[in-house]
Amino acid sequence: MLTVYVLTYIYKRLTQIKGEKIMRNERLKMMITAAMFAGIIAVAAQVMIAIPPVPFSLLTIAVMLTATILPKEYACLAIIIYILLGLGGIPVFAGMTGGPGILLGPTGGYILATLPAVICISFLLDMFGHNKFVAIGANMLSVVIILSIGMVWLKMVSGISWEGAFKGGMLIFLIPDLVKSIVAALVGVVIRRRLVQAKLIRATPL
Questions:
Q1: Which of the residues 59, 122, 131, 159 could staple to 45 if both were Cys, CB 3.0 to 4.6 A apart?
Q2: CA distances (Å), 152 to each of 3, 23, 67, 156, in order?
């Protein structure tokens, strides 16, 4: 009887250790994936058209793809890594720029707004399901979040009029970014489904 108890305990303990090891490996894999997406965001930010006062770039579509594909905690991690890299002076922001001066400058609000935008997308997808209709709505809402925060930041830092901030910092980007949000949603849902099926990412948080 004692032997059975000991063997049962050893089996449970070994199973627990194996499970913890698998979980650690999964977390490490997802952290590496988040870092890769941060790199993708950095590259996308360099595809830009310099339109004052705010450049037009592919930053937003990369951010929306990240939030649509990755689990929420790792999507947020990717954004945090990207922002911290730029804050540290690595030229990952639009136009191969970096440093705290960019984040504190007129366009810094658009960069910082990517984090609440990602949280919004992830929250809505987790709540209502990872399908194309929810993804489109969530990504469209994230565009409004980024542009609204960015516009207010632009007005406060640069001192231009509200009209100027709205026209130059929101209106001109609204239609293109909404189109990008639809593309990001449709493509992101498909990529996420394929990655989950291939067991490269998890459908649920660890």
A1: 59
A2: 70, 42, 23, 6
pTM: 0.86
* CA angle centred on 87, ends 150 and 110, rounded to 5°: 10
Residue from 106, 82, 78, 94 nearest 169 by CA: 106
Residue 88, judged by CB atoms within 10 A of its CB (0-12, 13-18, 19+), counts as: exposed
Q: Can you tell me the distance from the alpha carbon of 197 to that of 206, in angstroms, rounded to the nearest whole number?
A: 17
**Separation between Cα atoms, residue 106 and residue 203, nearest integer Å:** 38
For residue 174, give the amino acid letter. Answer: L
105/178 Cα distance (integer angstroms): 25
Nearest to 45 by CA among 1, 110, 4, 96: 96
Cα–Cα distance measured from residue 91 to residue 83, given in angstroms and rounded to the nearest whole number: 11
pLDDT tens digits for range 54-73: 888 999 999 999 999 999 99
pLDDT digits (tens, 9 = 90+) for 91-128: 999 999 999 999 999 999 999 999 999 999 999 999 99
Identify the bridge partners of residue 56 per DSSP, sorted by sequence position.
49
